[in-house]
Amino acid sequence: MTFYIRRWRCVALAAAAAFTASCAGVTYKLPDEYLADGDLLAAAMKEAAAKFSANPQLTAENGPFILKSLAAEDDASKLLYEWFEDELAAALGARGVAVVPAETENAATIEYRLIECRIINDKADGGKVTRTGRAVAHLRIYGKGGAEMFWAGECDGEFDNVVPKNVVAKLADTRIVPVGPQLPEASQNPFLEPLLVTGITGALIFLFAVSASSR
């Protein structure tokens, strides 16, 4: 009887070892409803671009349009600018407004600058986190052939996703360098971030004014 018990234990241990070996190297995929940083920001940028594309000045008659980023050449957030430009082109195209290459002659121009594009994590109930992708852009529309600016404004977008706290780190995208002020630490004044956003917005409006005056 003892022999059979020992033999059964050996078989069980061998089966467990084989199962463990078969699982080695297996990566368990997170549920599709848990959105990574890039997905959240893409959704937020899509909403902001859709709001902008509804501008009555953006018509086929006023176009075609060149999209011009005002990001610096060495801007670490250039990837976000590329994504936002893709969303702008898609939103305009859906309305029948043509987007053309920068060297196109006699085309109108849309200049844009991201003033905020980042993920904001807020504590939710039940050990979960509400992750919000937020995108805010300043845009200006210039007439054909380098004509004067005839519209300037700001468009924003947000998209939320609630996930368990323990998966937040797995959803990070190391390619993304966020734009905008970081969330204040617990020891900092909770009113600091709104003041920073206001200051950045004012500074960018000034930069746009200087850019327009130099034309």
Would you kindly provide a written description of the structure presented here, covering whatever features stand out?
It is a single chain. With 215 residues, the chain is α/β, with parallel strands linked by helices. It has a domain at 31-120 and 133-158 and 178-185 and 193-213: 3-Layer(aba) Sandwich (Rossmann fold), CATH 3.40.50. The chain has helices at 2-23, 37-53, 78-94, 192-213, and strands at 65-69, 99-100, 108-124, 128-142, 149-164. It has a 5-stranded mixed β-sheet with strand order 2-1-3-4-5. Helix 2 packs across helix 3 (78-94). The longest helix has 22 residues, at 2-23. The chain is elongated, with a radius of gyration of 25 Å. The chain starts with a helix and ends with a helix.
Structural class: alpha/beta
Rg over alpha carbons: 25 Å
Helix/strand order, N-terminal first: HHEHEEEEH
Question: Mean pLDDT, as a whole number?
Answer: 81
Which residues sit in consecutive blocks of at least 5 with pLDDT less than 50?
2-8, 183-195
Strand content: 25-35%
> Looking at CATH, which topology of the domain at 31-120 and 133-158 and 178-185 and 193-213 would you report?
Rossmann fold
What is the count of β-strands?
A: 5
Measured as a percent range, the helix fraction is 25-40%
Q: Could you name the CATH class of the domain at 31-120 and 133-158 and 178-185 and 193-213?
A: Alpha Beta
Instruction: Please count the helical segments.
Output: 4
Main β-sheet, spatial strand arrangement: 2-1-3-4-5
Shape: elongated
By CATH, the architecture of the domain at 31-120 and 133-158 and 178-185 and 193-213 is named 3-Layer(aba) Sandwich
Could you tell me how far the N terminus lies from the C terminus, measured between alpha carbons in angstroms?
96 Å
Largest sheet geometry: 5 strands, mixed
